[in-house]
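Action item from last meeting closed. Structure (172 res):
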């Protein structure tokens, strides 16, 4: 297979560790076209196809990512920075153990105070970012360490009405 000089120069822009593979791929495509000379147009066409393929794969990978948000008690947040929730998420423990490495925490916010006045609007906002699941932090559910949230059932209903999956708990 013959390569025109400008085509070869263009090929040199391909990172070295994948260059021979790219060369082989282009030559195979050229052979299929019944040609035996590689032009710069052929190289550019292959580069375009490669970028389109990579873009598609990236989009598919992004689509598979689980997007998670956590709602926490506004009162408790005055004394808790949320470290235990993040530790559990980062290590995929307790109520986060079902998620893979690609899961992302896209929101972490307080309810806004009783009776959860901020939740309705913030869940709407999260839905625009394709949130998959909302965790209710353990501080909203525990009965010993903190007073259990008296509005928890209304809050759960509000989120469920929007069709977003709920998981009860974070690190406990
Ligand atoms: S609504 Fe529940 S979670 Fe929110 S501040 Fe009141 S007790 Fe805490």
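Sequence:
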């Amino acid at each position: 297979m013959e390569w025109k000089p400008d085509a070869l120069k263009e090929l040199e822009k391909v990172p070295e560790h994948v260059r021979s593979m790219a060369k082989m791929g282009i030559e195979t495509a050229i052979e299929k076209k019944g040609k035996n000379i590689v032009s710069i147009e052929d190289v550019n066409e292959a580069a375009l196809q490669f970028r389109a393929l990579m873009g598609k794969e990236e989009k598919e990978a992004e689509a598979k990512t689980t997007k998670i948000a956590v709602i926490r008690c506004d009162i408790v947040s005055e004394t808790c920075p949320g470290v235990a929730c993040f530790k559990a998420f980062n290590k995929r423990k307790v109520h986060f153990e079902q998620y893979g490495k690609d899961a992302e925490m896209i929101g972490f916010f307080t309810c806004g105070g009783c009776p959860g006045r901020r939740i309705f609007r913030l869940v709407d906002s999260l839905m625009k970012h394709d949130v998959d699941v909302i965790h209710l932090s353990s501080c909203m559910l525990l009965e010993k360490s903190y007073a259990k949230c008296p509005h928890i059932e209304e809050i759960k209903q509000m989120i469920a009405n929007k069709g977003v999956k709920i998981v009860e708990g974070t690190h406990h």
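Note appended to the action item: The helical segments are 5-11, 16-32, 40-64, 83-90, 119-128, 138-141, 152-161.
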